[in-house]
Amino acid sequence: MTRGAETKQKTARRFVGRVTLVMVFFSLVASSLVARAVYLQVLDKDFLNQQADTRHLRTESISAHRGTILDRNGEPLAISTPVDSIWVNPKEFAGAIDKIPQLAKALQLKSDVLMRRITRSMDKEFLYLKRHLNPSVAESVMAMSLPGINVQREYRRYYPASEVTGHLVGFTNVDDEGQEGLELAMNYWLEGEPGAKRVLKDRLGRSIENVESIRPPHHGKDLRTSIDLRLQYLAYRTLKAAVKSQNARSGSVVILDVKTGEVLAMVNQPTYNPNDRSQFIAERYRNRAITDIFEPGSSIKPLIVAAALESGQYLPGSIVDTAPGFVTVGAKKIEDRRDLGRISLTTILARSSNVGVTKVAMDLQPDQLWNTMAQFGLGQMTSSGFPGESAGMLSHYSNWRPISQATIAYGYGVSVTPLQLAQAYSALGNGGMMQAVSLFANDEPSSGERIVSAETANAVRRMLEEVVRPGGTGTKASVDGYRVAGKTGTSWKFAKGGYSEDKYISIFAGLAPASNPRLATVVVIDEPGGELYYGSDVAAPVFADVMAESLRLLAVPPDAMPARDPGSVVQAMADRNVGP
Fold first, then answer.
1. What does each C-alpha distance from 139 to 22, 101, 110, 133, 135 come to in angstroms?
2. Choosing a second label site near 430 at 20 to 30 A (CA), which of 405, 451, 462, 517?
3. Which of 80, 250, 252, 298 is catalytic?
């Protein structure tokens, strides 16, 4: 073999060796890859699935909306509307910081403010950017496809009647939790329980598939209140006009169903719009009809007369000598405007005699008077369950002095809320039976609790009719076609160092129709600023306007239709028979 041939043979062997080595190397690599693939996909697939789930599977909350608050006829007072909230995972968004100006513009936020909020939260995984957006706005934000930006469906409370029912219904916070009014009192009933689901998300954090339902949402329960929205609007409109015309500080109107104890209307001035969070000021949103107390003045006198009749010491026809127009108790001289002489219990109420009612009260044992007033609900909260309700003030008779018993007789030294006073009058209208006050529709009312005899309640009610008739103090509370029983009240406001001589509270409390009362209504006007300040001039006309329309809306039959001349009836019938 020649040297050249030998060289070629050696070269060929080296080439074959190298090829073999390369093929072995690639075979080993391929085998390693196959082995690794088999290991990962067969033997260690749980780890891979876990890693995939960690990166792309998320658990999301499913929002549950609050129950709807309705009036007694099914009209909505509070409803939940769907809204969207935008949130960000700052860690995922870190690579898109340069997009903040566009994001801020879409969210209607300032770029520098948004920049600070996000950059200060880089260690967090959740940060709200803006809550409660219109879904169309949220959709435009998500269309920007920014990493880490997410949308969450929520619900926002909306109040269709706005300020008309604001004090009663209350409001929720941004997390849809009750803060005031029925929203707070019944939060446990109205609030829902959020659900949960597992979703698959893409690299931008967008949900692309619902994987499974973990827990379904449970929406809140609806709440049917006792309020009649028609009467609520009527009372609101009338009170607002009265407070404005009288330049008063505030006012309240409460309407109760005498037979059931249901609150058909409850309004206050000033008020607020629960849809506007900038108006959430305690001075505006507190429900004065339930939380504020006042000395009732002469509107308390019917309860004193009821106590006298219950004691057995007085009869409906009893006479009281008020001459010479004043009475002295201790160092205090109690006076009437003029000497009324010997007058009946009816005249004491009709003419609002302080002397007469003081003498009656002083004849009673302190425990007798106290027990009757306590049975009428004074000094204790009603059963309304409304947050912040006041119990008023009725000190125990063991703490009374003679002057205490005298001043309580005409409404000083005792304090009530408008709702308490309405409840007391409703008992007089219900034959002496006290119904529990309810802010919720009651289709099956209880029989109530007897607090005074039917004879006493009916006698006082008949006396109160004289208050509204000519010669009484409450003639401006009369309602055409209906008999009205009621009582005026005017009290000085307590001020530093004693009672103010130029600040008053004007009150009228009454029942209609008096023959078979359906409604008990209380009107309170605080600090009327005009020349008129007596309850007979300020509160009584409001009562008349509210009651007249309320009775019509409820289709209550008139009980005081004017008598018709028989001759006119005959003539009318004859006219109908006359041809054209």
1. 57, 18, 20, 10, 6
2. 405
3. 298
